[in-house]
Amino acid sequence: MTTAREIMTRDVTCVGERETLADAARKMADLGVGALPICGQDNRLKGIVTDRDIVVKTIAAGRSPSDVTAADVAQGKPVTIGADDDAGEILRTMGQHQVRRLPVIDGHDLVGIVALADVARALPDRPVGELLDAISVP
Description:
Order of helices and strands: HEHEEHHEHEEHH
Helix content: 40-55%
Number of helices: 7
Largest sheet: 3 strands, mixed
Strand order of the largest sheet: 1-2-3
Distance between the termini: 31 Å
Strand content: 15-25%
Number of strands: 6
C-alpha cells in the first residue's frame, strides 16, 4: 500500500517560531504555497501557519503581521503522520482532524508534507471524495 513517504512533498521549507507572519507570508509567496510548518529553535515541529491564519487571526483581528510571530499562531500539538504510515492512515488522520495538510515525521525529523493534492494524485477517486466530504465545512 502507498505510504506517506511515497506521496509527500519533500524539501519542505519551515518558518521559524520566532519569525513574524510577514516573514511567513513572504516565504509563502516566494514558494507559491499556502502553508508552512513552524519549526522551533530545537528543530522540532511546533505547528503549521496558513495564509488563512495570517488573514483571519491577524489582519482581520487588527494585528500587524510584522508584530505577530509564527509561534503566536501555533496551537496545541501539531497533527502529523509517520513517513511509513499507509494511505489508509493518511486518510483517517486528515478526515478525523479535518486538515488538508499533514507534516510527515520520521522519528523526530520533519521530512515532508502530504497535502490534499498529493493524496488526490496518488489515490483512487472514491477515497479522495470521501476525504473531501470529511474535511469540508458544512
